[in-house]
């Protein structure tokens, strides 16, 4: 029987686990881009407990921020990779935090409302950290 990690949420039929990876790109010794990668892994609850290797569905989300996004109030680039198909996430919201809330709602619809609220908090926190970092270096 497998042990659940700390960052997992159990719903009636599946286990959802997520993690965050942050990467900074530099050009001419200046910060040019901050990319945050979210890895969401889902497994059926019965598979998770009965198999050493449960069948896992993975969704990747990449949120890219540049100084233009911060200072010119442009929309952050949000890309989603589901199975092997990448696509850009579009939202009609002008505010990046509202766009991230839309992204969270969309992801909940994909995974059957089994994402923890902590993921939304993480999306907003990582965005605010990136904004503060860009503002601190200028």
Q: Layout of helices and strands, plus pairs?
A:
Blueprint lengths: L7 E3 L3 E14 L2 E15 H6 L5 E11 H5 L5 E6 L2 E4 L7 H16 L5 H20 L2
Antiparallel strand pairs: 1-2, 2-3, 3-4, 4-5, 5-6
Task: Write a brief structural summary.
This protein is an alpha+beta fold. The protein has helices spanning 45-50, 67-71, 96-111, 117-136, and strands spanning 8-10, 14-27, 30-44, 56-66, 77-82, 85-88.
Keywords:
138 residues, alpha+beta, 4 helices, 6 strands, elongated
Query: What's the helical proportion of residues?
Result: 25-40%
Tell me the β content. 35-45%
Please tell me the overall pLDDT.
84
Strand order of the largest sheet: 1-2-3-4-5-6
Distance between the termini: 52 Å
Evaluate the radius of gyration: 17 Å
Overview of the structural elements:
With 138 residues, the protein is of the alpha+beta class. The chain has one domain (9-137). It has helices at residues 45-50, 67-71, 96-111, 117-136, and strands at residues 8-10, 14-27, 30-44, 56-66, 77-82, 85-88. It has a six-stranded antiparallel sheet with strand order 1-2-3-4-5-6. Helix 3 runs antiparallel to helix 4 (117-136). It starts with 7 loop residues before the first strand and ends with a helix.
């Amino acid at each position: 029987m497998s042990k659940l990690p700390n960052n997992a949420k159990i719903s009636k039929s599946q286990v959802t686990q997520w993690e965050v990876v942050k990467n900074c790109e530099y050009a001419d010794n200046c910060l040019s881009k901050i990319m945050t990668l979210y890895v969401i892994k889902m497994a059926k609850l019965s598979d998770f407990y009965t198999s050493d290797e449960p069948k896992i569905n993975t969704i990747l989300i990449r949120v890219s921020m540049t100084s233009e996004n911060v200072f010119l109030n442009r929309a952050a680039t949000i890309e989603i990779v589901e199975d092997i198909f990448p696509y850009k996430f579009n939202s009609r919201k002008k505010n990046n935090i509202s766009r991230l809330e839309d992204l969270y709602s969309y992801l909940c619809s994909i995974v059957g409302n089994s994402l923890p609220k902590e993921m939304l908090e993480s999306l907003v926190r990582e965005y605010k950290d990136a904004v503060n970092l860009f503002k601190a270096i200028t």
